[in-house]
Amino acid sequence: MVKKSRRNVLKIASTSLVAGSLLPTVSASDQGGPRASLKEYEQTLDEAKAQFRDYKKDPLKSGVEGFKEVISDSNVNLAGVEKTVELPDKRSDRGDIQPERHRKSKMDVNFYLAGMNLVCPAAEDGSAQSDTPPMPDAWDVFFYFEHNPPWWSVGGQKPNDILVVSFADRNWYIPSNPRMDTSSRVSKKKEDAYGMVFEYEDYKWGNNEEMAQIQVKPDEDDVDNDARQVFGTYSHHWSSIDVESVTITAGGGVSVTVSDSDKQWILNNDPDTGESLKSSVADWLC
User: Fold this and answer.
1) Are 269 and 232 in contact (CB under 8 A)?
2) Please, are residues 252 and 170 in contact by the beta-carbon 8 Å criterion?
3) Most exposed residue of 19, 93, 278, 282, measured as fewest CB within 10 angstroms of its CB?
4) What share of the chain is helix, strand, coil (3-state, %, to 5)?
């Protein structure tokens, strides 16, 4: 297999239920330089999240663009997926109408695997080497989303929406006392052997750009980089239904069971078909 040389990695696949286009690569710092320390890695993530929070205060700016602005000039790389999706919304005074009659609102979803910038020394034939992974502690998953409801709508109803970061058995694990962060309307719901579940209070007023972060660490050594994936799931609910359970399988699949599935919209993880939010170490390596 011919290894490609990439001096930067912010590799984003863009697909959309509304519109889709290939996003341009955003440059990261030169990978020929020295590898950053774990402390520098964590400082960069903190600075990027601070920029996210600062940008989101300005209605003319995107918080996630502020996050990427810091990352693009750092020793941290991102690989992942950006999607624009449509999800149902409704006027609170029109009763319980069917989802297909709801006014549509858009949501931008950004799902990233972050890691330490690799040093990729040249081989004797001049090709890049990509077999040296970053230090095990330097991996994080970021789940960003911005809900843009119609002007007359807060954007949601009870119960809370569900976000899940998942992975297959032997691929990753969440360490004890992991790096974890959320925006004001997102909180941890539960930790699982195969991922982390968050919930989002989409029915409350506030800036509609939110995020969740969780640290992951590589598990078994004999996992191919293409298979070492992380997955994202978003489940949207309305009409005060009950969220009965959230389960993650050993393969990284996610099931969000509710009392009335007609009042649920889900961007679901499907590792078998790849029709999901996902990123792998293979996407990330230079």
Assistant:
1) yes
2) no
3) 93
4) 15, 40, 50
Count of Cβ atoms closer than 10 Å to residue 136 Cβ: 13
| Cα 26 to Cα 31: distance, rounded to the nearest angstrom | 14
Place of tokens 């195969």: 194
pLDDT digits (tens, 9 = 90+) for 213-264: 999 999 988 888 888 899 999 998 888 899 999 999 999 999 999 999 988 8
3-class secondary-structure state, position 152 = coil
Strands 209-215 and 103-116: unpaired
**Is the full-model pTM beyond 0.85?**
no
DSSP state of 122: B
| Strands 217-218 vs 76-89: parallel, antiparallel or unpaired | unpaired
Q: What angle do CA 22, 99, 59 make, to 5 degrees?
A: 50
Q: Which of 69-104 are b and which e, b meaning 16 or more Cβ less than 10 Å from the residue's Cβ?
A: bbbbebbbbbbbbbbbbebbbbeeeeeeeeeeebee
pLDDT above 70 for 22: no
Q: What dihedral angle (degrees, nearest 10) is formed by the CA atoms of 38, 26, 163, 273?
A: -110
Distance CA 196, CA 189 (A): 8
- Tokens of residue 242, six digits: 């009950």
Give the β-pairing of 161-166 and 229-237: antiparallel
Looking at residue 181, its amino acid is D
